């Protein structure tokens, strides 16, 4: 049977943390590490390979790992049939509600992820994002990056720079304002496209429903005529 790997990680704050299987499965780095290790001999049944990575994981304290573990627990429970790529495809700037004039960015985030990220301090979230990126935990990286993007889209240039811990000189501030303006225009354009797409879809569905109703009415009329002829 395929070998099952159990990892213990030494974090930056010198904690030794055993990571759950979901974390290992999502982490390309840990999966590749396991493939390079020698197989233990003499095990007839499924065996566990225990690895202690003694090099400290950069950016990572015990808190950050536990936040990723909680995310993966919720991700598995709430979106059990969704791949990370499918999850990312539904988190798009400006998607919002189809019948809304203004895009509601947070409506594109899974509620459980929005709730989890909103509870974290900015610095804790950023450090955990670095940790997730280091280990290659794709779903966390995708959804947390979308969350951060949603936050800065609601801010002005100076507020966005402060949120991202950036110091702006006058030239950089102007560049940031220009970038935020371009992002706002892109947001509005995508919102219009989403609305137009929804309208076209709605019209198509109404046309199909009308055709089905007409077909059913004709069939009922023909059946009634047949009964009268009999």
Automatic annotation (TrEMBL):
Transmembrane regions: none
Region annotation (Disordered) ranges: 80-107, 179-230
Top-level lineage group: Eukaryota
One GO process term, biological-process aspect: ubiquitin-dependent protein catabolic process
Record protein name field: Skp1 domain-containing protein
């Amino acid at each position: 049977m395929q070998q099952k790997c159990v990892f213990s990680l030494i974090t930056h704050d010198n904690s030794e943390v055993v990571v759950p299987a979901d974390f290992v499965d999502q982490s390309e780095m840990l999966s590749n590490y396991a493939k390079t290790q020698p197989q233990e001999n003499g095990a007839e049944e499924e065996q566990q390979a225990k690895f202690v990575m003694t090099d400290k994981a950069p950016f990572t304290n015990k808190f950050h790992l536990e936040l990723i573990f909680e995310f993966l627990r919720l991700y598995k429970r709430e979106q059990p049939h969704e791949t990370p790529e499918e999850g990312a495809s539904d988190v798009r700037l400006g998607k919002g509600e189809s019948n809304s004039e203004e895009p509601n960015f947070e409506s594109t985030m899974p509620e459980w992820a929005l709730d989890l990220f909103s509870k974290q301090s900015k610095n804790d979230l950023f450090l955990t994002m670095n940790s997730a990126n280091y280990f290659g935990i794709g779903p966390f990286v995708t959804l947390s990056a979308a969350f951060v993007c949603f936050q800065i889209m609601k801010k002005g240039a100076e507020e966005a720079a402060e949120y991202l811990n950036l110091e702006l000189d006058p030239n950089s501030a102007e560049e940031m304002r220009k970038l935020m303006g371009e992002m706002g225009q892109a947001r509005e354009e995508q919102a219009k496209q989403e609305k137009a797409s929804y309208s076209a879809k709605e019209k198509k569905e109404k046309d199909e429903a009308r055709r089905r109703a007409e077909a059913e009415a004709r069939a009922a009329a023909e059946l009634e005529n047949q009964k009268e002829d009999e």
